Structure formats: C-alpha cells, structure tokens
## 1
Amino acid sequence: MTTARFKGLIFDMDGTLTIPTLDFNAMRNEIGLPEGDLAQEVFKLPPEKQQGAWDIIERHETQAIHDQILQDNAEPFLARCRAADIKLGIVTRNERRSVDALCAKYALEFDAVVTREFQFIKPHPAPILHILKQWNLPPQEVLMIGDYVHDIDCGRAAGTKTCFYHNQGSTDHGEDADFTARSIDDLSEIVLG
Ligand SMILES: [Mg+2]
C-alpha cells in the first residue's frame, strides 16, 4: 500500500497528460500574432478580429482532437493514483469536447474537469479554486502539474503545490514550481514515492 503525498492531482492536458499536440506557433502565424500568450494576444485584437482568431484556434483544435496521445506510462500511473484514492482533475484552456475525446479514446475518468467554457482561464486561479471547493480539499494537499508557466502560476496563485512537466526539447521554464518531472515516471516518484 503506497502512501500518497497528495490527496488530489490537477493536470494540464496538452503537453502534460498528452504528448504536445497543438502547434501554437502555427496558430500564431496564421492569426498574425506575436510571440506570447495566445489567448491574451487574441484579447488584444480589435473586437471585430477576435472571432476570426478563435475560429482559427478551434479549427486547429478540431484537427488535433483525435490525434491526442497520452504520455508514456500515463495510463498505469493514473490507475495507481485511483487505487491510492487520489482525486484526479484537469484544468485546460482547451474545449470540453477535446477532453471528452481524450477520455473516450482511453476510457479515462476524472473527478473534475474545467475547460475554456469556464468563466476564467489559467493563469487565473479560479479554475483550480473551483475544483478544490468541489473536492473539499485544502490547496496544499493538491498538486497542479503543467508544462507551461501559466500552469505553475495558476497553481501557486491557488495555493497548491506545483510540478513543472518538462517535455523533451521544450524551451519552456518552470523554475517557480515545487517539483520538476521529465517523465510520467518522475511524476509517479514525486506523487507515490
Ligand atoms: Mg500544456
């Protein structure tokens, strides 16, 4: 019987639970946006241009919806977490249908899912706070895991512990995180020992 260090895990989806699928640079180029946070750059566009930008993003997401592949060893890890009574959640800026497609493909179940349709998106802490309330868990007993600085900022703002997921070859940084994992096996070590 393993003693888990956390009572709940909240995952980012693209690039964390899954191998990175979305090509954010291709989306930026097609919309004509500079480097930077995709959603924030879209919100800076004149109002009449924003819908067109979201249409482009949604087209990319639709193309990617069935291409999502879980990270190596993610399935057995999630199963071990389940067996250890750890709550499992997702906070993503992607759409609900993308999460549903991933869950259907791999027969996964999560205790809480917050997607772009929610009123606030990362790095705002509200998506995580929403889940903590649902789970009735104090933030320090929950680990937020993500491959982008927003995931870490979101967790820190909500008061959870944080784990930066460093994909091979990624230039993203997460030095403010409590932990860094370079694989699901690393993450398993952090969570289950
Ligand atoms: Mg991500």
Note: Residues 12, 14-16, 146-148 surround magnesium ion (CB under 6 Å).
## 2
Amino acid sequence: MSAGAHAERYALPAVLLHWLQAALVLWLLWLGWNMVELPKGAERSAAYALHKSFGLVALGLVLLRLAVRRLLPPPAPLAAGHEARLAAAAHRLLYALLLALPLAGYLASAFTPFAMKIFGVELPRLAAPDAAMNAFFKSVHLVAGWSLVALLALHIAAAARHALRRDGTLARMLPGRVSGN
Ligand code: HEM
Ligand code: HEM
C-alpha cells in the first residue's frame, strides 16, 4: 500500500474518542427506547438515572471531541468535489445532533419537579418545574434522537462502502501505526 493512503490519519485521541462515543451513544439510544417502555417502579427509575448520567457524559465527550478537533485537526478528505462536501456536511450535522440531543434531554429533565443527578450527585437546579417546557424539550429530544438514528444509518453505510472499496477511509479512523511521512 502506498504511504499516501495512510500518511494522513486521525490523531489517536480523536480515534479513541470516536469509538468511545460511538459505543456510548449507540447504547444510550438502545437504553432510551427501552426505558420508556418499562412500567413505573424501581427498575424504570434506575434506568432513567443511568440514562441521564451517561447522557451527560456523552455531552461532555462531544465537547471534548470538538476541543481535540481544534488542537489536532482531522486529515484532509480522501475524496474530492461533491463527495468531500457531502461528508463534511454529514459530519457537521452529526456534531450538531450530538450536541442538541443530550442538551435537549438535560433541559427536559431540568423542567421536571425531580432533582437532576449525575451518578447520584445532585446538580444545581436550573429552573422551576414547567410542564410545557418539559414537553417541548422532550419532543426536541425525541426528534433529535430519530434524526441521529437516520444519519448514523447513512454514516455507517458510507463507512462500510469505503471499507469494501478498501480506500483507506476506515483505516484512518482505526488505531494503528502511522506509516510513511
Ligand atoms: C460501526 C460504526 C461506525 C463506523 C464504522 C464509523 C466510521 C467512521 C469513519 C471511517 C470516519 C472518518 C470519515 C472520514 O475520514 O471522512 C468517521 C467519522 C466520524 N464519525 Fe463515525 N463511525 C461509526 C459510528 C459512529 C457513531 C455511532 C457516531 C456518533 C456517535 C459517529 C460519529 C462520527 C463523527 C462525528 C465523525 C467525524 C469526525 C471528524 O471529522 O471530526 N460515528 N466515522
Ligand atoms: C447522546 C446522549 C443521549 C441519547 C443518544 C439519548 C437518547 C434517548 C432516546 C432514544 C430516548 C427515547 C425516546 C424518547 O422518548 O425521547 C430518550 C429518552 C429520554 N432521555 Fe435521552 N438521550 C441522551 C441524553 C440524555 C440526557 C443528557 C438526558 C438528561 C439529563 C436525557 C433524558 C432523557 C429522558 C428524561 C427521556 C425520557 C423521555 C420520556 O419520558 O418521554 N437523555 N433518550
């Protein structure tokens, strides 16, 4: 393989954060859709508490990723023209949803009468309970959740297509030796 295909890759911190956040977000989507089906009781409350705590971790991770992206910019696109523009737009939209989704979840929870806790530690109250605001941010959370699922389906299909073509796109998001220059 030519050095060029691997010389430009995502930095290791960006790679590790991508896969850590991918696993966390896929699990949160699964947990979110399962917990809302549970009957009222201890199991449901525990699932909600877990979802909120790890949801806030996911919010922290996306902020960390964006900071790392500034310090260690991603490699130049492998494709040219409209394919590169499409990938860049999809990645921007992914980041927007990865911010909006947990933020909406946090705001929805902030307007309930319940105290907001992260791993059992109570956070300061942001606002007085407000049923209308709670319902609004719940809807935003739901729509952002579905939008993220749709976009991730495209993202993963695009990654699979690149992997089948062995064009180096997946390789530069995997940990490995930096070969070439
Ligand atoms: C099996 C699942 C996944 C695969 C195979 C995959 C693969 C990839 C690859 C190869 C890239 C680099 C694209 C390029 O160089 O142009 C990438 C970027 C990205 N992925 Fe994924 N991904 C997966 C899941 C996810 C998930 C679940 C998320 C969201 C939580 C996600 C968010 C992103 C973002 C935001 C970028 C842009 C990175 C940047 O340029 O800063 N990915 N992914
Ligand atoms: C990336 C992070 C997150 C993902 C992927 C995610 C995903 C989901 C999904 C798929 C659902 C079920 C669909 C729905 O009814 O809305 C849900 C529900 C919920 N999420 Fe999240 N969520 C995240 C972060 C958060 C955060 C940070 C909080 C609060 C601190 C939160 C609070 C809630 C609540 C309270 C519900 C239940 C809504 C209801 O009862 O209708 N989520 N989440």
Note: The first strand starts at residue 117 and ends at 118.
## 3
Amino acid sequence: MPYKDKRIAVIMPAYNAAKTLVACYEAIPKDWADVVILVDDASSDNTVDEARSLPIVVVRHDQNLGYGGNQKTCYKTAIKYGADVVVMVHPDHQYDPSFIPEMIRLIVDEGVAAVFGSRMMTPGGALAGGMPKWKYFVNILLTKIGNFVLGTRLTELHSGFRAYRTDIFREIDIERNSDSFVFDTQIIIQLVAHKIGIWEIPITTRYFKESSQVGFSQGIPYGLGILWSLFLYKTGLRKF
Ligand SMILES: Nc1nc2c(ncn2[C@@H]2O[C@H](COP(=O)(O)OP(=O)(O)OP(=O)(O)O)[C@@H](O)[C@H]2O)c(=O)[nH]1
Ligand SMILES: [Mg+2]
C-alpha cells in the first residue's frame, strides 16, 4: 500500500524504448508504486524483451496504434489492476521519476485530480535541459493559444509527465480521443470541459538522443491537431 491505502500504478507507454526503459524503471521510486505497467506499441526494437526482464506488467499491441492509443491501453490496464492513481512516465527516460512522490502526495493529500510536471515553470530550465529551440517557441505559442481558448493558466500544454486520479476516467471518455499525440491535449480539454482542476509542478527538462522521436515533420500535424481540437471545443462542434 504505497501511500495512505491508495493503489498506485506507474504506466509506461512504450515505443522503441529498449535502450532507455531499464534505466527509467530503475529510477522509479518503487515504494510508491503497487504496479508498474508497460504497454508496448508494436515496437520494432527489443522493448518487449527488455520489459519482460523486469518485475512489471507487460501488455503488447499487435500493431502500432500511436501514443494516444497506447495510453488508452495503459489506463484500462491500470484500472483493471485496481489503481486509484496513475502516473505516466515516458520510458524514453525524458522525465525524472523522482518527482512521482510529489505528484502522488498532491493527488492524495490535496484532493487534486490531475497533476502535470511542467518543464516551463523554471525560467530558462527547458532550454538549459536541451529542449530544441523550435520546440520551445512552439510550446510557448501553443500554450498561449490553449490558455486563451480554455481559460486556463497552464505553463505548458505538452508535458508527458502526468498523474491522474483514475475516477476521472468515469467522467471523461478518453476512448473518443485521438490515438496520436493530440490525445494529451484532448484530455486537457476534457478536464476543462468537466471543470476538473489541473495542478502543475516544476520538473527538470532533459533531452538526449534517445529521449525524443518527434521531429519537426511530425511536430506539424501535432500542432495542427491541437489547434483543430481547440477550435472544435470553442465552437461547440464537438462535445468534450
Ligand atoms: N513516437 C511514438 N511514441 C510512442 C508511441 N507509443 C508510445 N510512445 C512513447 O511516447 C513517448 C513520447 O514520445 P517522444 O517521441 O519521445 O515524444 P517527444 O519528442 O519526447 O516529445 P517532446 O517532449 O515534446 O520532445 C516515448 O517514451 C515513446 O516510447 C508511438 O506509437 N509513437
Ligand atoms: Mg520523449
């Protein structure tokens, strides 16, 4: 019972993460997790073999669904294992799992439903941690647009380091969301639409060779997908 009788699942949506996932797993504070779940999105490297060498739950997709499709399986599996709280850690080791206890404490002690680790809260931190300049400026721009449309004051819309209380998945329907990276923004829109608060904590940024597969060319459909989702929300053309 890691924390005050709440069951905690750490989920890792994985795609070609063989080189980093063991280091990432080792950095997870184990006494804060009842179960660690890795969903492999039909990787072409040996992510699954690496994952099976660890004492974790491994789920495999037969075909690549994408980052959002991967998360859908992660949350379903976490709920199947009885999780009250779920923390997503990217197995590319981009995010530092040592922030997990702080996120869980906010959820359990303060009753917060969603906690995001933000790379943009510490001035200069994101660039110092190696975030590419174009990502940094696009991040700021899309975050400003997102805050304007949603009436939020988030410091970034794009972090993949997130903790959720699993009861929110009874209120919001994530199955309707995109299977791509836009999933992460659509969850934010759903939280706002359902008046569920989001807290942010500052986290360190770290970019290295294996930590990022999204290049400029995949960044464009991601950015457009975000704008499209915000448009659908604002105009009421789609209910979130
Ligand atoms: N690219 C990709 N990643 C996936 C997929 N399924 C799960 N993932 C995982 O999603 C995580 C995030 O993907 P990244 O390509 O690292 O995204 P990123 O470039 O770090 O994004 P930034 O933080 O904005 O730089 C990785 O840990 C992947 O293992 C998939 O189908 N495609
Ligand atoms: Mg990454």
Note: The CA atoms of residues 12 and 38 lie 5 Å apart.
